Amino acid sequence: MANKLSWWKNAVVYQIYPLSFRDTNQDGVGDLEGIIEKLKYLNDGTEKSLGIDAIWLSPIYPSPWADFGYDVSDYCAVHPALGNLATFDALVEEAGKRGIKIIMDLVVNHTSQEHPWFQESRSSTDNPKRTWYIWQDENEEEGPPNNWPSFFGGSAWTRDARTNQYYLHKFLPEQPDLNLWNPEVQEAILASVRFWLERGVAGFRIDVADLLLEDNSFADAPVINAPVGHDVAEPIRWEKVYWRPETHEFLKKLRKLLDEYGAIGIGEVSPAHMLDFYGAEDDELQLPFNFSLIGMPWSAAPIRSAINSYESSLGNGQWPNYVLGNHDNKRLSSRIGPENARAAALMLLTLRGTIFLYYGDEIGMEDVPMNRDQLKDTPSLRFSHKESRDPARTPMQWSNEFAAGFSGAEPWLPIHENCQTLNVEAQDKDRLSLLALYRRLIHLRKKSVALSSGAYESLYVIPKTILAYRRYTTSEEYLIIINFTDKTVRPDLSEYHFSGCCVLSTHSLYNTKQPKLLQKIILRPREGKVFRIY
Ligand code: NOJ
User: Fold this and answer.
1) Which of 276, 359, 494, 505 is paired with 423 by a 20 to 30 Å CA distance?
2) Is 208 near ligand 1, meaning CB less than 6 Å away?
């Protein structure tokens, strides 16, 4: 059908960090069986479940877990602690029965140092796999080949005593960079992608998609200040050497393969050049991640301007997406304050585009305070300037039982003491819980063509501490209005002559049945409301 939207445009995608979702074999880390067990929580076809459309799995491949799966030692298998290919196939099948698609993480800038490709590559300078990684001689002062920095800290080069050359790693030394200039490497990656597509995977989230090829002249990067917002210790213009136009050529090949299967490519790319990754002919990633709101203070003015500038920058055919949390950042509730979590949910699920939701944010999980001896995240253990990502990766809080119902064993990361009250089971029983609000929002979005795929228009409303926008099609219209302050406000809407009913509030179950003229709406502190406009 010509104008039927692709499935992913209307999707709410739920990110699962597999080690922390549900452990069924009592080893303290989550597993694929655990995800299968919880599918009905995610979508049982009724409004009693969350109602998500797809799961993005953070890496499930075999890995020594130096970066908890972002260091892959086999692209065509499942980590034995998480399951095996049969469990994976069962997950795809069981998820499919509930209308849930599976999106994999594709980590191909680098492998693990334990990947057999690297083992071969490092074995001798004339090994056929030598050119699958990036090897260079030391510089004149017997140091690393150039000044390129690792994103986790220190130099991006490590000397390997076996052959006396240095290999490149933009992340940990345990994560050697693949040489994507080599067509054989590209072919091997695409073959792995096909392997999973054949098993029914609906798409890939591509790790550091803008960094896949680097300057192959290996000249020093200019030394000035790093772009604002980039967490690299050294003042080195790394983007000059790590962002290469040839990366786009590889992504085009990947896109062609994805298109054969109707699959989606979602890319982790820097906001600075995110739009380029749709491709000049819309022939690269369907969704370059939009991270513009993930680090933003909870304040109406900057959020309004980020949404509006993102919306107005998108070209024809470039579909938006929104993300408020993921495994690399502080928990949403901890970042903006639990008191704002309800309004954030309402905003996220009424914006235009594909929505990404990080597991546990739907119950308001918070960062878990940890001692240094509880930390697992390697960069934070090795480099003092690196904040640990562990506090936002802790086990899902299912109930107030042992280990929050996550596992019968001691979990791999500590669980927040608030799990006694902040858990799925408790929120399931409470019609006013955050979980209940997420469910109502997702189901309202699903039922409404305007909310799931209609246009967006920002509204000018006084006071400016209010965020207001319309979502509409020719047949349906909604007004969304959110109070970012801790005071009751009465924004004046008289100039818009809206007439409508309140269909959802963050603060109550109260709905209005009869449309009335919306002039001075009352919003309680931090309240958000959705009105159906007639
Ligand atoms: C980005 C991932 O999101 C992060 O978790 C990982 O450590 C790095 N890429 C390296 O793969």
Assistant:
1) 505
2) yes
